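mind reviewing these tokens:
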Amino acid sequence: MDAKIKANYKHVLFDLDGTIYDTEYAYTMALYDVVKAHDPHTSETYESLTRFMGSSAKATNEELNFHEEDFDAISREWVENLHKYEDSIKIYDGVLGIIKLLKERGMKLGIVTSRSSTYKDILGEIASPLPTELSQYFTYSISAADVKNAKPAPDSIYRYMELTGAKREEILFIGDTMSDVTCAKDAGIDFGLAVWGTRLSQSVRCAHYFLNPWDIYKAVFLTDSLNYQWYRYAKEIQAIGQIGLTYCENRFDIERFERLREIASSMMAMMTDMPLEKVKDAICSDKGYTTPKIDTRAAVFNEKGQILLVKEAMSGRWSLPGGWCDEDQSIISNTQKEVLEEAGMQVKVSRFVGMLDKSKWNISKQPFHILASFCICKEGEGQFSPNSETLEREFFDFDRIPVKELRVGTTTIDQIRLCFDAYRAKSWVPIID
């Protein structure tokens, strides 16, 4: 069953502050110092001033009722104060990893920001609309100084479209403020909310909600193959048949639902090259309401930051240790059990990476819908011996992963990259598909 990964978009645009960079504390404290200096009795607080995240300097000065002739001086005060807090500015965990992956997959990346190049000479990188560390990934950065009307006006998006020839339906814009939401809406493009950096207190209507930067993956990419789509239809037909048999009592309805399962089995057998009887044994023996199967995978890291892979005896390919979650096991206990059985190592789970829908991440020939849990573990004790399930175990640096030898039905290079990001992150929001 041949399938490939197709992109829903050709262009992904990012806001900078609050989306790629965590600048809230630095920007807001610098602004608070300015406001307090000009009005020692101000009612403004740190919390109240966070509303200006994503706003241009001009819009901020106007709302705070500074005189127009003082705008430049006020902005320079803010710039000078910002130096006191610049050490707090960091890229959010996981963001750079997904940006690298998007670039490697041929996605065209751009930045749409309220920053202005006006103060770059004074502030350097922390004011740059295109910081040096991002320049290898982004072709264009549209700043507030590049358009007549900055966000929330759609001018920045229009400018990007003018430069690249991108069409509205090809663009996804990712940001964290209502200004970003409005900009995308008025430009007529899809918007994804960066929940990790947003301060919005109410839900907004948009195409995507991203709790974790890696949630962007399943919004941008999908598995594309006519054959694979028919395979998914076959699984759905099988589920309808099984659920119908669970609840119906009429003899004729029972015959119809049994026939649906037979048709689904034949379709799966044709598309997976599995013997028909083996497919029937796998799916037609299952009773009751159809639910997904659970696969557990362990990302075991050693002190060098390398990840553990095992070479499977049956396929001869490398995979993260793991397997079906047994009926009497939890996700954590099954993850640890599988590592012991396949790698001969006793480990403890230290972080939950996420629960992934394998139909969005893997090319699977299994006749079931599968959810796969991924957990981070630290290297433990134990000796490895070749066994009926695995032939070898080995730790790899990311750039030494044998990509062409992976068993992609269970472990893809994108999932391994995800695990590296989760392992390195100071804090991590699990991905739940």
Notes: The two ends are 24 Å apart (CA to CA). The mean pLDDT is 88. Residues 236 and 264 are 8 Å apart (CA to CA). Residues 226-247 form the longest helix (22 residues).
